[in-house]
Each structure stands twice: as structure tokens, then as C-alpha cells.
Write a structure and sequence with these properties.
- By secondary structure, the chain is of the alpha+beta class.
- Helices cover 14% and strands 30% of the residues.
- The strands form 2 sheets. A 6-stranded antiparallel β-sheet has the order 3-4-8-7-6-5.
- The longest helix has 10 residues, at 5-14.
- The chain is globular, with a radius of gyration of 14 Å.
- It starts with a helix and ends in a 5-residue tail after the last strand.
Length: 134
């Protein structure tokens, strides 16, 4: 998705340098040194750029990679998939379907029931903790 110079400037003002690098320049954050790789709280993960709901904590699992990993998005149409030939590999890049922000990659080595692993950068997400009902 092509962003206008005005939209890029708005995101540069809103996001941290790492968030901007990941979401707008297809960057990757360090493994095991990011906000949500080991988050076990119940809740919803949203796009940091537009707030779209992307992943549920119910579908999150420990893949051992150091990045948040999910078996599926909250809705299949929440993401768009794109061929990524960077770094001498052929991978499937996933982006937010609403705003086009880079989120991470999809791999076919996840657990049942989907067999998919959505390996997502914490920097592309904001976490909305589920309220505990009393």
C-alpha cells in the first residue's frame, strides 16, 4: 500500500522510531527484546497505526522465536498477504488490511488447528487488555 508523504509524516510524529521502521519500512525488531513476545495477559492486539483488531490472546502461543506468534488473526480479512523476496528468502509478509502497515510474516510451521504461525513484531501492535468482570 502506497502512503502519501503527509500520511508518512503523520505516522512519523505518532510512532516511535522503531515502530515507524517496522510498520513503514518493513523492519524487524530484535527477538526476545520486545513488548509482547512473552505477554500472557488476556486481550486483543490491534494495529499500532490504525487501531484495527488483528489478533486475540486466545490464539497466541510461545513459538520459541522471541516474537509474538499467533495461529490465526481475529478475522481472515483483517490481514493482507504479500510475497516477500528480501534477505535471500521467499516468505509471506502480512500487513494490516485496513492501513497497509507491515506486521511480520506468516509461516507454515505453526501448531494445530491451523498449522500457521503468524510471527508478528510487537512494535506493530498495541495491546488492549481484557477487562476482568467482577
Amino acid at each position: 500500500m502506497h502512503r502519501s508523504p503527509e500520511e508518512l509524516e503523520r505516522l512519523r510524529q505518532k510512532l516511535t522510531p522503531l515502530q515507524y521502521h517496522v510498520c513503514c519500512e518493513q523492519g524487524t525488531e530484535p527477538p526476545f527484546a520486545n513488548a509482547y513476545w512473552d505477554n500472557k495477559r488476556p486481550g486483543l492486539y490491534r494495529c499500532i497505526c490504525c487501531g484495527a483488531p488483528l489478533f486475540s490472546s486466545e490464539d497466541k502461543y510461545d513459538s520459541g522465536t522471541g516474537w509474538p506468534s499467533f495461529t490465526r488473526p481475529v478475522e481472515r480479512n483483517a490481514l493482507s498477504a504479500h510475497r516477500d523476496n528480501s534477505h535471500g528468502m521467499i516468505r509471506t509478509e502480512v500487513r494490516c488490511a485496513r492501513c497497509g502497515s507491515h506486521l511480520g510474516h506468516l509461516f507454515p510451521d505453526g501448531p494445530a488447528p491451523t498449522g500457521e504461525r503468524y510471527c508478528i513484531n510487537s512494535a506493530s501492535l498495541e495491546f488492549e487488555e481484557k477487562k476482568v468482570e467482577e
